[in-house]
Each structure stands twice: as structure tokens, then as C-alpha cells.
Design a protein that fits this description.
Blueprint: E1 6-7, E2 12-13, E3 15-21, H1 33-49, E4 53-60, E5 63-70, H2 76-94, H3 96-99, E6 110-114, H4 116-127
Antiparallel strand pairs: 1-2, 3-5, 3-6, 4-5
């Protein structure tokens, strides 16, 4: 787990966010393993580009969980705008069954901050999403 402090010339930070978000109409888009795999690849690319570390990432049939270590200059809204915007555009271009949707994601999302004590618990929870009945 990445509990290392981020350091810049002017800041030292340790910020973890847990995000959960869903496709419009709770469509079960992640039942298609190709969509799930491509979504994860895109999230990795986006997070690399904006200097965000992925601590855990998992999908269930109709939602995604991300547990991220972020720099202090990025707000949760900025992060979600980038991830949802770029994955929506790319997935709808690549998968014809998604192309009919005007947008892939709902406008809403859940976000929570995590302190050092509960970070491991959230990481385990996110990673165990696939195994839950």
C-alpha cells in the first residue's frame, strides 16, 4: 500500500480517496470482460497522466470502485471529470453496444477520504468486491 507522503517544493501530503460510480441506468456494462479490461487500462493511463496512484481498482457488474492516492492540487471533482469523461468517450467509440448511450456514466458519484488507519480496510473491501455474492 502506498502510504508514502507526496512531496513537492511547497507541499507534503498523503491524500487517499475512495470513489464509487455507476453507468447510467445501472447498466451491467462490466459483465462484458472486454469492457471491464479496457476500462481498467484507460483508468491506468488517465491516472498516470494526472499523477494519481491507483491503490486498488475493481468493478462489479454495474459499478466501479477506485481507491486513489492523489496530489493536493486535484479535487475529487477534477479527478472524476477526467476519469468519467475520457472513459465514456473512449468506451463508447470502441464498443458499439455502448455507442447508443448519450453518456456512459451518471453525473453522480460517491467519494470518501481515508486516513491511514482505515486505508487498509478500504483497500481490502475494494479488492474483495468481485468475490462477494
Amino acid at each position: 500500500m502506498n502510504n508514502e507522503y507526496r512531496r513537492t517544493q511547497t507541499t507534503v501530503s498523503l491524500i487517499h480517496y475512495h470513489f464509487v460510480f455507476c453507468p447510467r441506468y445501472r447498466r451491467k456494462i462490466f459483465l462484458n470482460s472486454q469492457v471491464e479490461q479496457r476500462f481498467k487500462e484507460l483508468v491506468i493511463q488517465i491516472c498516470t497522466n494526472i499523477n494519481v496512484a491507483i491503490l486498488a481498482m475493481e468493478t462489479d457488474k454495474d459499478h466501479a470502485h477506485l481507491f486513489l492516492n492523489v496530489p493536493p492540487q486535484l479535487s475529487p471533482a477534477d479527478i472524476m471529470a477526467k476519469i468519467k469523461g475520457l472513459t465514456s468517450k473512449q468506451l463508447r467509440e470502441e464498443f458499439t453496444h455502448l455507442s447508443r448511450m448519450p453518456s456512459l456514466w451518471t453525473r453522480s458519484y460517491f467519494v470518501s477520504t481515508a486516513g491511514n488507519v482505515s486505508s487498509e480496510t478500504i483497500k481490502r473491501y475494494v479488492e474483495e468486491q468481485k468475490t462477494r455474492g
